[in-house]
C-alpha cells in the first residue's frame, strides 16, 4: 500500500524553530516522495478558548509560515482542519470507542490537569481522538511530528486497531510517527530547561519570523552557567541546549571549535552566543523574507486555502462514506 503522510500544527501564534525542525521541514522533505495532507489544526486550538479574531489571524499566520518554509500547495493538499465537516463526524465516531480511563492516562492530559486546573475541558480529554480523526480521515500511515507527539500517535494506532477489530475489516491503517532524518526531534528552548514551546512568554522561543536583531537579543540572554571548572566537564542543560541549537544551524567546524573551547575551559559564552545568533539569522532570513512577501498576498492565500479545502474534502468524503457504511448507517 502507498504511504499517505498527514500532519498539522495548532495556530496559536507564530511557528517556532521546534515546529520547523520537528515537523514543517519534514513536510517539505516528504512532499516530493509521498501523497501528503498538511493542515492547520484550528479545532485543536479551541481547547484554550482563543478570541475569534486571534483564531483567524493565527490560522492565517500558520498558512503563511508553512508556505514560507517551502510547503508547496501544488505538491500537497494544504488546508484548514475546520474546512472539513467530516473531521467532527469522525471525531464523534472515534469518541464512542475511546475510554475515559485511557484518555485520562495520556501524559499531555495529565500535565494540563496539573498546569491549568481551571480549564480541564472535555476537548482536552478527547484531544487524542480529534488528532486521530485528522490522521485516519485520509488513511494516513506516516505522521511527521516532534518527539512530544509520540504518545498521541500511539493512541491513534489504538483507535484504528480497535475500530478495525470491532467491525471486522481493515479499514483504517495504523499510523506511525515518522521523521525522514530518523529519530524524532525535541528542539530545546533558550530558558535552560525543557523543549521550545509556544506557551512560554516568547523570549525563549526562536520564531521563524524573528529578525536578526530579535534573535541576537534573545540568544544573548539564553541561560548558561558560570563556565566549566574542570576539563571535559558534563554540560549544564542550558549550555547543552546552546550546543544543540548550534548543531542545527552552524557548520560542524564552528560546533567543534566551541566544543574544544568548552572542554579546555576556555569557552566564552558571549562569543558562542554571538556566533549562534549570526548563524541562526543566516538560517532563518530566507524564510522570514518569504513570510514578509506572502503576508501582502491575500488573494494568493485565499486561493491556496480554497483549493486545499476542496481537495481535502474529496479525500475525507471517500473515507467517511466508507466508515458510515461499515458502522451501519443506511438510507431508508
Ligand atoms: P503543535 O502545534 O504543538 O506543534 C506542531 C508540530 O511541531 C512539533 N514541535 C516540536 N518538535 C520538536 N521540538 C519542539 N520543541 C517542538 N515543539 C513542537 C510538534 O511535535 C508538532 O509536530 N497536536 C498537534 C497538532 C496536530 C497534529 C494532528 C499533528 C493536530 N492533529 C495530526 C499531527 C497529526 C500539536 O499540538 O502540535
What is the architecture of the largest domain at the second tier of CATH?
3-Layer(aba) Sandwich
CATH superfamily of the largest domain: HUPs
Over all CA atoms, what is the radius of gyration? 21 Å
Indicate the CATH topology of the largest domain.
Rossmann fold
Strand order of the largest sheet: 1-2-3
The top-level CATH class of the largest domain is Alpha Beta
Provide a brief overview of the structure.
The protein is mainly alpha-helical and 332 residues long.
Describe the structure.
With 332 residues, the chain is mainly α. It folds into two domains: 212 residues, Rossmann fold (3-Layer(aba) Sandwich); 93 residues, Tyrosyl-Transfer RNA Synthetase (Orthogonal Bundle), CATH 1.10.240. It is built from 13 helices and five strands. The chain has a three-stranded parallel β-sheet. The protein has a two-stranded parallel ribbon with strand order 4-5. The radius of gyration is 21 Å and the shape is globular. The mean pLDDT is 96. The site of tryptophanyl-5'AMP has 25 residues, from strand 1, helix 1 and helix 7.
Topology:
Layout (H helix, E strand, L loop, with lengths): L3 E6 L7 H14 L4 E6 L11 H18 L7 E4 L5 H10 L4 H5 L2 H9 L6 H4 L1 H10 L5 E2 L6 H18 L8 E2 L34 H9 L16 H13 L2 H12 L5 H27 L2 H30 L5
Parallel strand pairs: 1-2, 2-3, 4-5
Helix pairs in contact: 2-12, 3-7, 3-13, 7-8, 9-12, 10-12
The structure holds tryptophanyl-5'AMP.
